[in-house]
Amino acid sequence: MDVLEFTPEPADFAWTFGGVPPVRRVKPGTALRLWTEDAFAGSLRSTSDLASASLNMPFVNPQTGPFHVEGAEPGDTLVLHFVELTPARSWGASATIPFFGGLTSTDRTATLQDPLPERTWIYEVDSARRTVGFQAQGSDLEVALPLEPMLGTVGVAPAGGEVRSALVPDMFGGNMDTPEMRAGTTCYLRVNVEGALFSVGDGHYRQGEGESCGTAVEGAMNVVLIVDLLKTPGPVWPRLESDEYLSVIGSSRPLEDAWRAGQVDMVHWLGELYGLDKLDAYQLLSQVSEVPLANVVDANYSVVTKLPKRLLPQVTAYDGIHQQLRQVSLG
Length: 331
Prior knowledge:
This is Acetamidase/formamidase family protein. Pfam families: FmdA_AmdA. With 331 residues, the chain is mostly beta strands. Helices cover 14% and strands 35% of the residues. It has four helices and 21 strands. The strands form four sheets. The chain has a nine-stranded mixed sheet with strand order 1-4-17-6-15-18-19-21-20.
C-alpha cells in the first residue's frame, strides 16, 4: 500500500470546501498520514485568550487538503476509512464565543438579551490514562473525562461549483461534528467534481452529543486514513459504517429537517440492502433507529440516524469495503 505523509504549513490550509486547488494527488488504495490544526487555528492556548480578540474570522476550522483522488468522477462513491486519530498536542481548548452556541442569543435566534460571557477552558491530555481534564473556573471542580478522538469536519467539494465555508455541514459533508467520525469508521461521500477534492480537519479530543456551546475539546490531530473509490452511485447524504452501526448524517435548518434528511436516506439505504419497499423500510427504521444530535449550533444543524447491526440480518454494504479496509488497518 502506498503511504503519503502530509503536514500542512499555515499557508497550505483550506478554509472552504470547493474553490481550492488540491495540495496533493492520491490514488485509490493509498494510506494518508496527516496532521490537522484545531478549529481555532491554534490561537487559544490559555484561559486568558478570548475568542473575540484571538480568532480571525473567517479563518477558523482550517482544513488539511483538499486531495485530488485519481479517477474520481461526479456520481462516484468516495470511501475514507479512518485508521488512527491521536492527539497531536498535550492540551485541547474549548470556549464560549459571542453570538455562537445552542443556548445563547445568536444572529439566527435574535433576542434582546446580551450574549453569554466569553470564557476559555484548557483541557490537559493524559495520554497514559487516555483522559482530558476539565477544570471549572467558577469553582474547584475537576473531572477527568475519557479521551474520545474524532474529526468534526470531513467533506468533498460541493456540486454546482459552489464554495462553502468550512463551518457549514451539508450534503457534501463538512462541519458535521458527529462523534461517530472516529477511528474504525468508514465514511462514504458522493463525488461532485473530478477528483472529489476531499479535506479533513477540526479534531475533537472529545465532544458531547449536540456540541451545546458550539465548541468541543478542540485539538490538533494526527490522522491516518485510507482513501478508496467505488464506481457506484454515491449517497445523497454522508453515510458512515462501523463494526456496530450503519449511519446517515443529515444537515439542515430547522432541526427537524436535518432529522428528516437522514431518516429518508436511511429508508433508501435499507431498501437497497434488504430489498424492502419504502413502507416496510420506514416501519423497520421506526423501531430500530437511534438518533443522536451531532450539532445544533452551526449554520446548519446535523442529526445522525444510526442502525444497530446487531438487530438486523447480516448484510454487506458497498461490496464489503468497510470490512476489507478494517482488516487492512488491523494488519
